[in-house]
Structures are given as structure tokens and as C-alpha cells.
Amino acid sequence: MSRRPEGGIVGNVATGRGDLQTETGDFYIGARIEGSERTEPVIYDSDDLVRHGVIVGMTGSGKTGLGIDLLEEALLSNIPCLIIDPKGDMGNLRLIFPEFRPEDFAPWIDPAEAERDGKSVDEAAAVTATTWRDGLADWDIASDRMRRIVDGASVTIYTPGSSAGVPLNVVGSLSAPPLSWDEHAETLRDEIEGFVSSLLVLVDIKADPVSSPPHILLSTLIENEWRAGRDLDLASLVAMVPDPPIRKLGVFQLEEFYPKKDRVELAKRLNGLLASPSFAAWLEGPPLDIEALLTGDRTPAPIIYLAHLSEPERQFVVTLVLSKLVTWMRRQSGAGRLRLLVYMDEVYGFAPPVAEPPAKKQILTLLKQARAYGVGLLLATQNPVDLDYKAMSNAGTWMIGRLQTENDKKRILEGLADAGAGTDIGAIDTAISNLGSRQFVMREMGSDEPAVFQTRWAMSYLAGPIDRRGLERLRDGGEDPTSSATPEPRPDPVEEPPPDGVPDPTVERPDEAVAPEPAPQETSALAPDDALAVMPSVAKGVEAFHLDPAAPWAAEVGAVPTPTHRRAVAVAAIDLLYDDRYAEVDHRETYEVVIDPLTSSFDAGSLRPVDHDPRDFRPVEPDGIPYAIPEAPIGEASFWKGLSSSLQDHLVAERRLQIWKNPKLKLYSRVGESRDEFEKRCSEAAEDAADRDLANLRNRFAKRIDSAKSQISKADRRVRELQADVEARRQQELVSGVGDLLGSLIGGRSRSGAVRRAASRRSQTQRTAADLESALARLSEEERELAELEAELADAVEKVVDEWSAHAGTIEEVEIPLERSDVKVSELRLVWVPTARPSAAASDEVGLPDTE
Q: What is the pLDDT of residue 532?
């Protein structure tokens, strides 16, 4: 919050002299309070709202007026606003009267209240106009500031489920969002979950998105259509429920997981909702599209009015709006400034701390992720226990008015303490206790201390909740361009038959009956040119079927669950025999193909290989869907005979069985074996062959190596013997040998024998040392010869291994052709595909610009 007394203010805001001027993005919301006096103006930085905000205050605290002030300032700064209005107060944004004419105020004066005051309506209107002019002047707000909103903003009140305001079709359109499933699967599934959860709430079905069969089925159907790029509406979705175009849910077969009897019951309940006259208003008006709501020549401020709805219906609408908002948001570029303000006037029941209503997940998602996209969420509530603690902790700005009980204050203080460090809880406690009417304590993330302020006078006339008559008055007499939008035409619900496949809830039928058999009809307006209400005749002997949309390959031929017509394709099964005695191939397979488009002459480009089975085809039964007349003469037997022959010729000419061959190893791949698998088998065979050659090498070298090792062993023993002898002799010489020789020489002739013996020992030692040296040389030679022998063996081993490795990699491709006698068309049938015209290309996306 900026606290700038100069802040564009001309004059003294406390005394009411001057005219207020603020910069774009600065929200003038009131003045600081010190004691009982107003001091400097409070200028709130709009970009702080990307960290979201919460307004808390009891009835009569001025909470609604503060919300109106913030929205007025946003529109003055050209910041779009999306407003969710459960109580009906936010329509007061349309009641800005810059000229202060009594006649402008008169329609909004309560006659009973005027009478209690002893005034006529006109007199009360004149007093009110004067009061509003003086009140705004006291806060330095002049007519020019008000006129900027009137001229620059487009405030439209949408009333889903009612035509009192601008109708909004929140359920009739399930258009596939323009997002990639590879990048945004989680976002798209969240939107689907929100829609399905809220839809089931409307028909009083409590459903867990993770375990409830109704929720899982509806979510899967929507995801399948969106992944295929197809738009839906509620009637089409309901029509798919009894016989969905799927065969499994998870790993279980559809019938095992969610039996048809239960699916029909779900379809009846949903169809009852569609057939209800009171539900007709839900399908009127433009479809819910966040991009459209936030686009226009003037700053948009769509108000989603909910005061007329029941609690389940409010949950339904809020969940849908917020789900689509999250999806829209994630298509936008990142932004650091506030580019969209989302205001919810009363959050009670939508994000409680314990329960999990459908809208709660979307609110928490916005609080956690919207900041990155420049989207700020501002929630208002009377009681802090209405908000989950996760929501409270994600709010960067708190504006706290008078509270009803001490427990409410305690809850607020606990939430603030959890929201961030540095908050002076004691100061906030004291400030809250001393608040008066229209006074609030503001606590901002990162602020050193809370600020106490009084809200300024609202430029909008606060007439209180706007009722149906008020909505009609604004719709019929307002200048908003969207208020004159013509609702999309809708057939009379009494005359419109139930959607295809959905039982009429007013007729008793067995469980297995899905819908009454419709009477034959003439070509409908939805049928393509040259279409028949009954199936064209087919040549004798050729079976005709309807394609089941649940067939795995149905999408490849453009099948849709809710068709406008049927078109013809041919389905064939051809038995093929591949025979080659050299490759030891005797392989039989069935080639299954769809021929689409089906033309009078054979076109190989029309062949679509598919894997079909009998479950893919349904008997032809009247269902009111017209048949497009094919180009091919399907009623002539010669056409089918020629088609069969052309298929044979084509497969003989083009179809080959490809296998792999290793000529060195004399191996062929098996049918269906990949090259990688064959290469692995060749490598294993080459290793086996190499092992055999290495065994031969081992036998050849074994005797030579054993002989060399034996010679080394002998030489080693001789060396150890001589080493021991030399060592012993040298020890003897050291002890006595030298002494004996010297003594003998000194002692004279009588000792000549001793001298001779001593000299002999010395000579013998020298001869033994010479023998040791010779033995060591012999040992070294034997060891060298063994090393050379081992090197020779290593070279031979490497050569064997390299040779067989090279053989393993010698792989050639072999093609085994077909003879005409090897090709037999075993099955050829006509199949009618349920299809629809391609939808018009979606218009280019237009994102909201960053607000400067």
C-alpha cells in the first residue's frame, strides 16, 4: 500500500476540498484514521493484488462498499474484472450517476422506506442525489472521475438459469479448449472434473472423481471427445451415456465396471434435467467463454449474478466459471502486473476448511498459481471460518472490518500468524477491537505494521441487492451493448424428442431398453445432400452393418457418438498364405482393411488397415439418422465381385512378407520377428560357433602349454635347490672357512691339509654359484617360451571371435511374395459409419493485453 499524501491529491482529503487525481494502477480506497480523525489518503498499489486479497467483516461493517471501491478503482485503471456475485450487491456498479439527477436515483428508491421517512419516492430520490453528491465531494471525487467509469467500462450482469439479466449458457456448450493435451493435460482434466462434479451436484449425485463410476464415465467421454478435437453439448453427452463409444474404463470392461442398467438410470436423471421446463433458461444466451467475457471496446466487468439460484446451482455455476477461468489463464503469457481482478463477493460455502465442494479446488488453484499470469483473486466473507486455512495463508493483503465474535477475531489472528512472519499480531488485535463502521485494518505481506483506514464514499449508488425487477430494468434500459444480445434459438422442449439413446423418463421400459424406436423420418435439415431416411439397398449376399462408435478404429473413419448422418465404407478380411521351403516359412495371416472412401472404381489409396472384430459391427436398426447415398453402386453384385478381385490383384502386386536372412550362419528370421530380435539371435548363434572353434583351439594348445609349464616347474625346482646349496656354503665359509684358511697359512707345514680343505670348500661354493646362474637362465628361457605360446593362443582366440562377430552382422532382407492362389477374400461387408459435418474453424484466440 502506498501512503503518499501528495499522491495526485489536489486539496485536503480530510476536509473535502479539491479534486482527486491518481495515477493508473493506484487505487484510492479511503483515508487513514488516527483516533477519530481522517488523515492522509490511502492509495493502494493494484499490483499487490496479484498476491491476492481477503476482505472480512460482519454485516454492516462496510465490506460490500470496500469491494465496490476496489472494483471502481480497477475499472478506472482499465483493469478487467470478473465478478462473482452470490448475494446480488455487485450490480450496484451499474448505478453510477455523474449528473446526480434525482430521476436517475428514483427507480432504485425503496417506496416503503421512503414512506417510513414521510417522503414520496421523488422527494427521497432528491435527498439521495444530494447526499451522494455531497458525500463524494467530501472525499474529493468529482463527476469527471465517475464519468470515466461510465464511458470507459462495460458492466454486464449475466444471470445463468434466468432471463432476468443477460442469459448465459453455462451447460449447453462443452467446446474443446484450444490447448495441447501433451502440455496441458492436468489443466484440461481439472476443467472436466469441475464440470462433471457440478453437473452431478445438480442431479443430486454425490460423486468422488477418483472412484465414482458416474463421474469416471462422464469425465472419460468428455476427454475422448476433446482429445479428438470435437466440441460437445450436454444433450450429446447424455446421449452417449447408455451406450458409450468405449469398451473399457481403466482395466475393467465397461459392463463389469458400470453395468448398462446403472448407465441408463444415470441417463434418465440427466435427461430429466434437460427435459425440465425450468432448465430451459440454462441453455439460453451465449455459451460460457472467458475470452468472450473479457473482450470488448471498453474495459469489461462481467458480473455472474447468482442470487436467484439454489445452493447446488451456485456451486455448479461457480465451479464452471472458475474451471474455465483456470484454463483460459494458462493460455496467457506470464505477467508481473495485475491484468485481471477476480472478485467474489461472498465466499461462504465455496472453500470451507473441512468439506470439499466442487468449487474449492478451483479457488485453491487460483490462489496458488494465478499470480504468475497477473490474475488477482479478491475474496470477501463475513466470517473467517468460511475460508480454508490454505486459502487464508495464500492471501497477501488482508482488509479486516468489524467482527461479530471474539472467536472470529481469534481465527483471523491465527490465519495471519500462519500467513507470514513479521506480523504484529498484538497490534492487529488491538486495532480490530477498536474499529467502527466502514473502518478496516489493512495488513499487507512485507508491511512492518498494520494500517487502520476508513473506506471512501462509493461512486456507485449502494442500493442494496438488486432483485429480478432491477435486473430487468438494467437489461431493458441500460446502455450496455451486450444486454441486447439475442439468445440462441432453442426448440420447444415439449416437442423435442429425447436425445438419441436416452430413455424417455415418462415411459416405463425394461432396463435393457435404451430409447423408444423412432418412426421413419424424411430427410432432416441436418442431413447432407443426397441422403435417404432409410438405408439404400445392398447387393444380395453382402451383409450390411452399423459401425459401433466404441470400435477402437472408429475415429480413423470419422465416426462420432452423436452423428448427423451415416456414410458407407467397405470392410474386408483377406486370408494370406506365405510359403517358402528354403526359409522354412509356412505363414498364414488375415489382412483386415477398411475401404474408405467407397467409390465406383478401386483406389488403393482408400485402403485403411485396421484390426476389427465382430463387436465393432451392430445390426442395422432404424434410428432416424439419414443415410448419405454413396458414389459406389452398392446395390450391384458386379461391384462387389470386382472389388474382391481388385483386392486380390492389389495384394499380390504389393503385399510382401519381409523376413531377414544371415547367409553366413544359414539362419532366417521367424515371421513377426523384428530385426533387433533377429540380430540378437544371430549374435547368440555366432557365439555358439565361436565357442566350438575355441574348444578346438584349447585342445590344440593344451599339450604344448602343459609341457612348457612342466619344464618351468623343473627349472624352478633346480634353481631353488642350487639357491639353498649356495646359501648354506656361504654361511659355512663365513663361520669357519676364512678362519681355517688363514690359520693354516700361519701355522706352518703341519697344517697344509687343513689349508687344502679350506681352499676346496671355497672352490666348490664358486662352482655351485655358477650352476645356479645357469639354472636361472634356463628358468627364464622356459618362462619366455610359455609367454610366446600364450600370446600365440590369444591371437588365435581374437581371430576366431572377430570372424564370428562379423558373420553375426551379415544380415540381408528377404521378401516372400504371394501367388494369387495364396490370397482369398473371406469377408466383404458394407458398414455405415455415424458421422457429422466438420465444425466451423475456431476463431483465433485473443489474449488480454497487459495493463499498463
A: 85
User: Following DSSP, what letter does each residue of 12-65 receive, concatenated?
Assistant: BTTTTBS-B---TTEEEEEEEEETTEEEEEEEEEGGGGGG-EEEE--TTSSHHH
471 and 164 Cβ atoms separated by less than 8 Å: yes
Res 196: pLDDT: 92
pLDDT of residue 119: 92
The CA distance from 381 to 58, in Å, is: 8
Q: What is the pLDDT of residue 10?
A: 35
Distance CA 547, CA 616 (A): 6
Helix (H, G, I), strand (E, B) or coil at 446: coil
**CA gap 832, 549 in Å, rounded:** 11
C-alpha separations of 772 from 717, 733, 758 in Å: 11, 18, 22
The DSSP annotation for 545-614 comes to: EEEPTTSTTGGGGT--SS-SEEEEEEEEEEEEEEEETTTTEEEEEEEEEEE-S--SS--GGGEEE----G
Q: How many CB atoms lie within 10 A of CB 445?
A: 15
- pLDDT of amino acid 477: 61
% helix, strand, coil for the chain, step of 5 = 45, 20, 35
For the chain, which residues score pLDDT lower than 70? 1-21, 172-173, 418-423, 446, 448, 477-529, 583, 733-762, 838-852
Residues 422, 413: Cα–Cα separation, whole Å: 13
CA 7, distance to chain mean position in Å, is 45
Query: For 174, phi and psi rounded to 5 degrees?
Result: -120, 60
pLDDT score for 523: 33
pLDDT score for 626: 93
- At 639 the pLDDT is 95
C-alpha–C-alpha distance, residues 372 and 336, integer Å? 7
Adjacent-strand bridge partners of 55: 380, 399
Which of 568, 653, 559, 572 is closest to 610 using CA atoms? 572
Whole-angstrom distance, CA of residue 450 vs CA of residue 300: 33
Ordered strands of the 439-444 beta sheet: 37-45, 26-34, 451-455, 439-444, 397-400, 53-56, 373-381, 335-344, 81-85, 299-305, 153-158
Cell of 504: 424417455
Q: Confirm if 845 and 290 have CB atoms less than 8 A apart.
A: no
**pLDDT value for 741:** 52
